[in-house]
Design a protein that fits this description.
Blueprint lengths: L3 E4 L3 E6 L10 H9 L2 E6 L15 H14 L5 E6 L1 H12 L4 E7 L11 H8 L9 H9 L5 H8 L2 E5 L2 E4 L3 H6 L18 E6 L10 H7 L3 E6 L6 H4 L1 H12 L2
Parallel strand pairs: 2-3, 2-4, 4-5, 5-8, 8-9
Antiparallel strand pairs: 1-3, 6-7
Helix pairs in contact: 2-3
GO molecular function, one term: hydrolase activity
InterPro entries: AB_hydrolase_1 (IPR000073), AB_hydrolase_fold (IPR029058)
Protein name: Alpha/beta fold hydrolase
């Protein structure tokens, strides 16, 4: 069963993080959704955060996990939000289990194929040798040689934890990602359609959703609304949480 944090009362609202993220990334926004009247479920997807590790890692497997989670928690009608990789999970979930999903929100990712672009990040993570018992500073120093951007590095290093006294580790399953890396860019199958209200939000400075992608998105999600957060990149919910919250709650309460 997936690890989750459940807070609040009201309509169930399931939130899914992106690649190498975890439920903690959404803690602040989740609290605001609770205040807005939702029962919020922030998940750790398989091989991420505190959820189980598995050699199998695909969108189909992650969707099945979320379906089992909904069954276990008696969630028969939900709204769902996913960012990046989590957005792809949300798209596949909504198109294959439309009987469960009322409204879908996708943050800065489209249903199309994406070429692999995490090589440097993974090279930095793989360069860490935990057998020599590095300190947090040691790990950051190693990763910084591959990931110069401070914000990206801090996001990655949130995954560090003390496995036992004196022994750090990453929470995510790096081996599974190394072995299944092409899985993350996989497109949504051509014949999958979700007809309920769908909101796509993109960062104005992000290249993940281009204007020329819109026809392809609308083919899968005909009841589409697109919003852009200006001056925000791929981590739009962290860069402008106020606007992100306002756009999503307005859509959910329509």
């Amino acid at each position: 069963m997936l690890y989750s944090k459940i807070e609040g009362e009201g309509k169930p609202f399931v939130i899914m993080h992106g690649f190498l993220g975890m439920s903690d990334n959404w803690k602040t926004l989740a609290g605001q959704y609770v205040e807005a009247g939702f029962q919020v479920h922030i998940l750790d997807l398989r091989n991420h955060g505190r959820s189980f590790h598995s050699s199998e890692w695909s969108y189909e497997a992650m969707v099945q996990d979320v379906y089992e989670y909904c069954k276990e928690n008696n969630l028969t009608r939900i709204d769902i939000l996913g960012h990046s990789m989590g957005g792809k999970v949300a798209m596949l979930f909504a198109t294959t289990h439309p009987e469960i999903v009322d409204k879908l929100i996708v943050a800065d990712i489209g249903p199309r194929f994406y070429k692999q672009h995490h090589q440097e990040i993974l090279a930095g993570l793989n360069a860490v040798d935990f057998s020599v018992k590095p300190s947090r500073n040691d790990v950051e120093e190693i990763v910084s040689q591959y990931v110069p951007d401070f914000g990206t590095r801090q996001f990655l290093l949130k995954n560090l934890y003390w496995k036992e006294p004196g022994q750090l580790a990453f929470r995510f399953n790096l081996e599974a990602f190394n072995n299944n890396l092409d899985a993350i860019g996989k497109p949504l199958a051509d014949d999958l359609v979700f007809n309920n209200p769908t909101l796509f939000i993109r960062g104005g400075n992000s290249g993940y959703i281009q204007d020329e992608d819109l026809d392809g998105i609308r083919k899968h999600f005909p009841n589409l609304k697109l919003e852009t957060i200006p001056n925000a990149g791929h981590w739009l919910h962290a860069e402008n949480p106020k606007m992100f919250f306002e756009l999503t709650t307005e859509f959910l309460k329509e």
